[in-house]
Amino acid sequence: DTAVSQTPKYLVTQMGNDKSIKCEQNLGHDTMYWYKQDSKKFLKIMFSYNNKELIINETVPNRFSPKSPDKAHLNLHINSLELGDSAVYFCASSHPRDHGNTQYFGPGTRLTVL
Amino acid sequence: GNSVTQMEGPVTLSEEAFLTINCTYTATGYPSLFWYVQYPGEGLQLLLKATKADDKGSNKGFEATYRKETTSFHLEKGSVQVSDSAVYFCALSGGSEKLVFGKGTKLTVNP
Question: Where are the beta strands (DSSP E) in chain B?
């Protein structure tokens, strides 16, 4: 009965590789997000999709490509991984008309680039 | 643009002490305000929220009141427990739907 789930939980890879992180929500929400948490715990929005349509892209390098096959899924594909991509990536979802856009977060994916 | 400023800590308290974590914001219009908590090694959990001025959010003994006149949403708890040790994030949601977070405050509660 997990609300927002992400896979994998941990991802260790070499520089230059391509990797994907998957996110699924079973809350029936219209909007999904990707956030990045850096080593100092700072959280910043990367992307937002509403009903499979991109609505927020916060100056993220184009090596990062989100893909939303349906409104319950938002995957993040990263090309040519760099050391600076090491971080924890959180997926979230919300229904914008619900209680001030309350967002529910997944457990996070810790990406380590060697 | 919208922004959130919170005391960075770390904050170290003894069990049963009173907790305040300050949070102020800058926003146009009438944002919704949130506190999220991140326990060690875990994801973000919504702790409480307030969607309009003078609303008080509360959960698990924590409280915060949306003060428009001082643009603040300070988190308080009367008696902290060891299990409250975590990182606390203040956040706001304005018209663009994204959440803007403060930098987080690490709380350690000692027995």
Answer: 3-6, 11-14, 19-21, 23-26, 32-38, 44-50, 56-59, 62-65, 75-77, 86-93, 99-101, 105-110
Q: Does A40 contact B at CB distance below 8 Å?
A: yes
Kindly give the confidence (pLDDT) of every residue in chain B, 111 residues in length, as a single tens digit, with 9 standing for 90 and above. Answer: 889 999 888 999 999 999 999 999 999 888 999 999 999 888 899 999 999 999 999 999 999 999 999 999 999 999 999 999 999 999 999 866 788 999 999 999 999
**Helix ranges, chain B (H):** none
Q: Do A33 and B98 touch (CB under 8 A)?
A: yes
Give how far Cα A10 sits from Cα of A13, A64, B15, B20, Å.
Answer: 10, 18, 33, 34
Contact status of B64 with chain A (Cβ, < 8 Å): no
